[in-house]
Amino acid sequence: MTFLASLTHPAVFPWLCLAIGLCVGSFLNVVIYRLPKIMERDWQAQCAELRGEELPKQEAFNLALPRSRCPACAHPISALENIPVASYVALRGKCSACGTRISPRYPLIEALSGLTSAYAAWHFGFGLTGFATMLFLWSMIALSFIDFDTQLLPDSITLPFLWAGLLLNLAGTFVDLGSAVIGAAAGYLALWSVYWGFKFATGKEGMGFGDFKLLAAVGAWLGWQMLPLVVLASSFVGAVFGISLMLFAKRGRNVPIPFGPYLAMAGAIALFWGKPLTYAYMKLL
């Protein structure tokens, strides 16, 4: 057996993807934290340019620079302190220099990325569909946590995500190209219609334009046939979480709740189990 054949063996490939997913999860933590700040800096620069002002020089800030460091004491995080999940456990969830507690969300995102990648590898096996599914899940994780933190769904992720779905379905990776194109259009128009209907009825905005683009991207990946399931599942999960937050976290009704994470969860459900769920639903009807 060759080395490549051993890596792609069904008993080995999920473990390999677990390791890859953990490393990607570490990078997703950087994206989730930095991308909104990069966007804010860009907006400030654009506003200053329109006003004819010049912003003071700032430290380079992007996905690569500056090097990761403790937000409390600015201690640079070494390679040994940046091993996904393992470093958090070894450091007992604290900075090695100042002892400030590290948020457990960092290892949670790493573990989520690793475990979902391993499941995708086990479910679909070695091939384009398996790797595409991992890309789908990584994008959804990043978008979900950014939306949860900032109520933003950055175009720099949603738009390439949409185009990636269409390009992958040129080869019929998940659905035929016709279903993908109709899914992208129908996904956008579905929430666009809800947005304007709600705004005309109440004078308020019920969701953001990023939600339209995210559902369009899901439609581009999974086809229009999965959109009813995604909308129903996301609405149900969103309602459960929203009611739970109001009851247990005493969150007011007027506090906006991001819809992106629920679309992401519903998209993942449809990706793995959409066909049997749709069949069962239609049979029930």
Word description of this protein:
This protein has helices spanning 3-7, 13-51, 86-90, 105-124, 128-150, 155-168, 177-202, 209-222, 227-248, 260-284. It has 285 residues and is mostly helical.
The run of helices and strands is HHHHHHHHHH
Oligomer: single chain
Shape: globular
Strand proportion: under 5%
Radius of gyration, taken over Cα atoms and rounded to an integer in Å? 21 Å
Distance N to C terminus: 50 Å
Which runs of at least 5 residues are low in confidence (pLDDT < 50)?
none
Counting H and I runs of at least 4 residues, what is the number of helices?
Answer: 10
Q: Helicity level, as a percent range?
A: 55-70%
Largest sheet: none
Computed structural class: mainly alpha
What keyword list fits this structure?
single chain; 285 residues; mainly alpha; 0% strand
Topology:
Elements lengths: L2 H5 L5 H39 L34 H5 L14 H20 L3 H23 L4 H14 L8 H26 L6 H14 L4 H22 L11 H25 L1
Helix pairs in contact: 2-4, 2-5, 4-5, 5-6, 5-10, 6-7, 6-8, 7-8, 8-10, 9-10
Summarize the structure.
By secondary structure, the protein is mainly alpha-helical. Helix content is 68%, strand content 0%. Helix 2 (13-51) packs across helix 4, helix 2 packs across helix 5 and helix 5 packs across helix 10.
